[in-house]
Amino acid sequence: MPVSSTTPVSRRRFVAMTAVATGVAAAGGCALPLVDDEPDPLVPLAAAAARDAREFAAADASHGDDVARLHRMADARRTHAERLSAEIGPTDTGETPSNGAAAGPPAVCPPIGEVRTRLRDDARRAGEVAVASRGERAALAAAVSAACTTAVEVVLA
Length: 157
Fold this sequence. Notes:
- By secondary structure, this protein is an all-alpha fold.
- It is 63% helix and 0% strand.
- It has helices spanning 11-29, 42-57, 67-88, 112-132, 135-155.
- The chain is rod-shaped, with a radius of gyration of 28 Å.
């Protein structure tokens, strides 16, 4: 048989305990928001697009008949970098990810085989981001994935 408490609970004590319990419950809702430590998945896509735009634009006579195609792809990748950077917005330093992209050694366009490999990797990565994202971000990542796949399968075929 359970033992009941012999301490009588007054109205005043009940109200006080209820107020304390309500305060503790409400304090949990006022806690600081959780910090999202995961980096924005669009940042690597923007960085890759900016790199490709810079390097593909550096295509020269050593790339033979592919120079014009590489320059067109450089324009497309530049557009990708700009749109992705606009979606990401300013970073903590106040710069967009593509602002510092032009600094460093002069760009050198890789051989066509490496261009195909890069674009396939970028398409895969952008597709994964599209699946994991929602709304405008998903649509933008899907468009980048489709453009990279088209560049490999159609433009460089």
